[in-house]
């Protein structure tokens, strides 16, 4: 049984996006529209605050307030991609939660472990692809896994980009090859080994991100998801990119479509809607940014990618933030169902049927009245 990563559109490799570029380059080059999008978001949030609706604004000044557990300088503003702003992760950071103490496992094409935004975040990893290096070589010959890693936990360090949970740690398991394909048996082994993993201080994996899928139900894979979930590990999955833009027709990808996992569809912040390629079915839990997502790319690069593969890591990073917060506020780790509830609850309906948007679009500073 073959598993593949969920296809994505063309990507554009950029220089460090937090470095200001000459004006004429910014206007000519389509993929450098990042600063403009960012300003738009900033204005929107200012307006919100004026109305008294926003709690915790996200302009550069607010980020310099030292409620955070790490110093956050005004410089940092330039490194936060639009998708991370969109889910309102920075407000959770300034409340003191950046994912510290939480390990997220990424089962994917590997990761550029020397990328300056990721190097400090990785606690371990291994490789199941036998013809792509030794068992400890997680080199990412595709780029997909590195991009996913950046969206979850790229370092908030004033350069490059920042992930949703910039103090979370990453366990990298390579189970997809350079072409984005892998064996379901390897993915199952990867899930089981992630569940059993212990870090140097006894830390455990709390979240597994699976930006991959197969179009048919495969019971051994389902069993692995049931085992992970039953062991207290939340499995966050890409809903799949086989959608037709029609709510009434169902397209399924597994393991997203298993009840035990969280299925994440793609929101397009360019259009304000659900991306038409995002699978619709009765198992979609929520949506998160998945179109023109800026993140890390191998070789100290950055790239835009599109797909439900990019939406899932926004939710995995958000899960790390909420895990840390739940533990801090309650003194106990959240169960999988508590964490699922917290994520589904922090969404806003964008008016699409549940088959497309699930309960809604991820927004970490709201309560969804319907959840
Ligand atoms: Ca960074
Ligand atoms: Ca459909
Ligand atoms: Ca599911």
Overview of this structure, please?
The chain is of the alpha/beta class and 371 residues long. The protein has a single domain, classed as Peptidase S8/S53 domain (Rossmann fold), CATH 3.40.50. Helices cover 30% and strands 18% of the residues. It is built from eleven helices and 16 strands. Strands 3, 4, 5, 7, 9, 10, 11 and 12 form an eight-stranded mixed beta sheet that branches. A three-stranded antiparallel beta sheet has the order 6-1-8. Strands 2-14-13 form a three-stranded antiparallel beta sheet. Helix 6 packs parallel to helix 9, helix 7 runs parallel beside helix 8 and helix 9 crosses helix 10. The protein is globular. The two termini are 36 Å apart. The relative contact order is 0.16. About 15% of the residues have low confidence.
């Amino acid at each position: 049984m073959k598993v593949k990563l969920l296809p994505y559109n063309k990507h554009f490799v950029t220089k460090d996006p937090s470095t200001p570029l000459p004006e004429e380059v910014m206007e000519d080059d389509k993929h450098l529209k990042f600063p403009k999008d960012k300003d738009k978001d900033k204005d929107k949030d200012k307006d919100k605050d004026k109305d008294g609706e926003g709690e915790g604004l996200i302009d550069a000044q607010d980020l310099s307030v030292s409620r955070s557990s790490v110093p956050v300088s005004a410089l940092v503003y330039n490194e936060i991609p639009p998708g991370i702003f969109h889910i309102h992760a920075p407000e959770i950071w300034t409340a003191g939660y950046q994912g510290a103490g939480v390990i997220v496992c990424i089962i994917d094409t590997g990761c550029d472990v020397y990328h300056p935004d990721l190097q400090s975040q990785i606690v371990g990893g291994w490789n199941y692809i036998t013809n792509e290096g030794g068992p400890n070589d997680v080199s990412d010959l595709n780029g997909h896994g590195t991009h996913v890693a950046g969206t979850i936990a790229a370092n908030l360090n004033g350069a490059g980009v920042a992930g949703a949970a910039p103090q979370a740690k990453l366990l990298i398991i390579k189970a997809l090859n350079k072409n984005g394909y892998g064996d379901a048996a390897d993915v199952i082994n990867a899930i089981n080994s992630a569940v059993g993993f212990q870090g140097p201080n006894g830390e455990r994996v709390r979240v597994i991100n699976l930006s991959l899928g197969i179009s048919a139900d495969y019971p051994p894979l389902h069993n692995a998801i049931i085992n992970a979930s039953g062991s207290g590990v939340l499995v966050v999955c890409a809903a799949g990119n086989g959608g037709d833009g029609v709510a009434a027709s169902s397209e399924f990808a597994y393991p997203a479509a298993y009840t035990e996992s969280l299925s994440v569809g793609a929101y397009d912040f360019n259009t304000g809607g659900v991306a038409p390629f995002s699978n619709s079915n009765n198992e979609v839990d929520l949506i998160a940014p998945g179109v023109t997502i800026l993140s890390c790319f191998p070789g100290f690069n950055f790239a835009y990618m599109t797909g439900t593969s990019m939406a899932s890591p926004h939710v995995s990073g958000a899960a790390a933030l909420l895990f840390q917060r739940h533990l801090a506020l309650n003194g106990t780790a959240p169960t999988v169902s508590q964490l699922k509830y917290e994520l589904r609850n922090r969404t806003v309906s964008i008016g699409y049927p549940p088959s497309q948007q699930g309960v809604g679009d991820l927004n970490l500073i709201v309560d969804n009245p319907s959840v």
